Amino acid sequence: MKILKVAGLTALLVGAVIVGASIHPSLSPQAPGQAETIAPAEPPRHVFLDLAWAGEAVVAVGENGQIWRSTDQGETWSAVPSGTDVLLTSVAFSTATNGWAVGHLGTVLRTQDGGRTWAQVQLTINRPAHFTAMDVAFADEQTGYIVGSDGSVLQTRDGGNTWQQSSPAHASYTLTGITTLPSGLAIVVADNGHIYRKAPDAEHWELSQSSYYQHLFGVVATGTEDGVLAYGADGTILLSEDGGVSWEQQKSVSTTAYHAGIRTADGSLVLGGDSGVIVRRHPGQSMFYLEPGHPVGAVLGLAERPDGTLLLAGHQGLGRPAGNGYQFVGDELGMTGYLRTLQLMLLPETQHLLTHFASRTRDSTGNPGPRWVQLTATAKDDQSLLAPELLSQIQSLQLALNEAASDRLFSVTSLISSGLPTQRMQSGFYQHHPLFWTLQNRTYDEADDRALAYQIRINGADDVLISRDRKSIHFYLDIHSASPNPPHEALAAALRFLEELRATNNQNPESGYQIQPLQLVSLTATQHLAPEEKSQPAAKHTGREFPYVYVLTNSTERYGCDNSRLVVLAPKLELALRSVAGVQTTLSVAEIEKRHRASLHQDHWKWFAPGLERYQQAQYGSWASYGCLNPLVLIYGQPGAPDTTEALSAVVREELARLGARDLVGELQITAYRRTVDTAPTASSR
Questions:
Q1: CB 179 within 8 A of CB 187
Q2: CA distances from 108 to 26, 84, 118, 160, 216 (A)
Q3: Cβ contacts of residue 196 below 8 Å, gap of 6+?
Q4: Which pLDDT belongs to residue 427?
Q5: How many angstroms separate the CA atoms of 26 and 257, rounded?
Q6: Scanning 127, 219, 471, 662, which has the fewest C-beta atoms within 10 Å of its C-beta?
Q7: pTM for this predicted structure
């Protein structure tokens, strides 16, 4: 079983597969005919959820305990130690120096120097087990609130020195947002549509809204004495002009889910949401209109700069205005934030290794590792292969490949394919997400091209299934046969067909593209390599060295595993493994769990973290084998780096000891795979 099989324009047009401190690139554009590999530097992978000003500095918080700080209005950022690795959901400052950040597992952090240093606050009051703090807000220097799961509200009246429980009666749902009005009135919203209000001198909360079908994610004061705006899923925007006594639905050009809201200096209200939607309602207007500069991915946090422009936190990380759009930290050379995760999920190395480990026959057959054929089509005359005049030709190439695939010669993964792939990472294993177009019987214009480019990028397909300059499209082909190991005859027959297809196309003067020499790519487990092969430097192709890929697996093969402990440990092990010399990047099973967990909470990104729920095999697809998680982390080596299996194994042992999980040392193992590429396979290639 394969996971995340994106197949192309039709896959992106008919169904989308969506599988979050310094600056660094991801996959760089490939030379014609060159097999994909990972560039030496790694861009930031963090999803950020909130922004707040601390005097003239701005502070951002996000996943893995990330706190970043900028003193030049978001032009550059530096990471600040937080002392935690949990998801931080919100940050607020009561003065230019005193601030608070909150997050999962009841985490509360405090700074008294404008965000330069942070210390964890140990609250002594009783809270529900695994309390998750969702938002923090201060009415003034003394009065503040923290809201979160299980209907919990914590309140301080002495600047955060002490906190008391102040929860609404009978509230059990997650409280997702809080704000205070100039009068001191506090307004709280919940993910079940409830809204609560409390006057500064009142002891109890009053329920002012009880709609169960409007999932609310946040609330912001409008600037008037009693004005407040609540927002959430399905385009929900509610306005109250009487301090939350009554609410009225507001109009917007978009029905996306809204996750962030601010009031700007000119009195405008700005909301950020899924799919990069940013809407603004200017003073005196009655409707929210789209802002220009549409970013890619969900907008989860907003802050206004002194010049009136916006800083963004979200799906891609941290962004600032640039040209007619937004530039995110590290995106000048590749994908950042959650887009990078999607890109790694689409790598053929990832897909093939997951499939390889999901196979029950991999050990009994002694199969050394997966292999596939790459076919690359490159445009002539410096054109885009997605241009209308070339798109039909690329479709014809796909049809020819599909016809061969129907004879079980091979299967194809590409941008162009049929079917409706499962949207596992976006909405859970069993849900689908159809898009809007079909390429049949309609024109394809510039607006379609822009929309398609957005879908390609949001799905992580850039530099994996298609180059960023749109001049090369890659097709990955798996050779089929009746036996577990494809025999020489099946491979030879496939290569003969592909070479004939290549020759026919390249000799056709009317073809707008060339098919580059075929490549046979292999990932071979190092235990299957001869000693002299292990000692050789990594193979080279067109000047680029190909890395090792390592797999950290749960070697225990039994049914009915409860892997919740491993899911929680996976991101901690992943961070430790990234620090090993020679490692380019990593991808853990926790990435699936994080997005799946958020989807269970109506796609609320403040749940974007591995949970403690019992492991469910279906949601992990090929990450699961024999009912157990296997593998746990994929580790991609840097180009030219030697085999680092021993160093990686040592780090795993040390980290398990640090985490109090020595009992797992014997259950986890690392297997190294070496990538080799035959740039011109022939019919006799084995």
A1: yes
A2: 33, 10, 10, 11, 23
A3: 168, 171, 175, 187, 188, 189, 190, 205, 206, 207, 208
A4: 30
A5: 29
A6: 662
A7: 0.87
